Amino acid sequence: MNRKILSLVQLQCLRLIVLFTLIFGLILSVDGGSTLAAEITSNQPQIVQPPVTGLVSTLSDEVAELPSDLIRWSTYWQLCWEPYPEAKEYELQTVLVEGKSPKLKRQSDRCFRLQAASNENQKSQGLLNRDLILLMHKIQLGYRVRAVVDSNRVSEWSQVMAVGATTVSETNGTQISVNP
After folding, report:
1. Which of 116, 130, 135, 167 is 20 to 30 A from 17 via CA?
2. Radius of gyration of the chain (CA)
3. Phi and psi at residue 122, to the nearest 5°
4. Pairing of the two strands 99-107 and 56-66
5. Could you tell me if 134 and 85 are in contact, meaning their C-beta atoms sit under 8 angstroms apart?
6. Higher pLDDT residue, 113 or 180?
7. 69: closest CA among 10, 117, 120, 119?
8. Quick check: 7 pLDDT over 90?
9. Spatial separation of the C-alpha atoms in residues 35 and 179, rounded to whole Å
């Protein structure tokens, strides 16, 4: 099959996936009360004010040149926040279309970074389907953060930040590094 036709078919398939994900997310959001019970535990820490603030999310691209005029690229999404007074650590919670994950990621750093998109393709195609892959993450995946003040006190949760979304203009905030 012609590569151009194959690329168009792949693009149409990805668009259908995004559409079905949106529909599925809307259906699940109508029944949002079922996730509340999972958040209630018998040993809840005391919640203190205010929430973590100053969230900044950025994208950075890394590109490596390969033989046969190919490239391998990755786009990383990074979320950073302002220091919280008296915070010992920070907890991140994954927020999916289906609801909030009960598992928390604990870290001392004030930034969290993950690979949001990657591909290997012809150099002439640039970062093929990058925007579409990032759009799918924006719809399906987000993170929120809170400060751990001590063993029995945590801050309120921050707002949810969608993976792939940026708080800095992409033309000004995207960093591209080329690794030959």
Report:
1. 167
2. 19
3. -60, 140
4. unpaired
5. no
6. 113
7. 120
8. no
9. 44
* Both tokens assigned to 17: 């996936």
Q: Please spell the DSSP secondary structure of 35-55, one letter per residue.
A: GHHHH--TTPPEEESS-----
The band of 174, judged by pLDDT with boundaries at 50, 70 and 90, is very low
What percent of the chain lies above the pLDDT cut of 90? 66
- Cα(125)–Cα(24) distance, integer angstroms: 31
- At residue 151, the pLDDT reads 87
Contact assessment for residue 116 and residue 143, using Cβ atoms and an 8 Å cutoff: no
What is the pLDDT at residue 173? 43
Backbone angles phi, psi at 4, to 5 degrees: -65, -45
**Among the listed ranges 8-17, 39-48, 126-135, which one has the minimum average pLDDT value?**
8-17
Spatial CA neighbour of 58 closest among 105, 126, 114: 114
From CA 98, how far away is CA 165, in angstroms rounded?
A: 19
**Single-letter residue type at 139:** I
Gap between the Cα atoms of 122 and 2, Å rounded: 15
Name the token pair of 105: 């990621």
Report which residue type is found at 33: G
The pLDDT value recorded for residue 13 is: 60
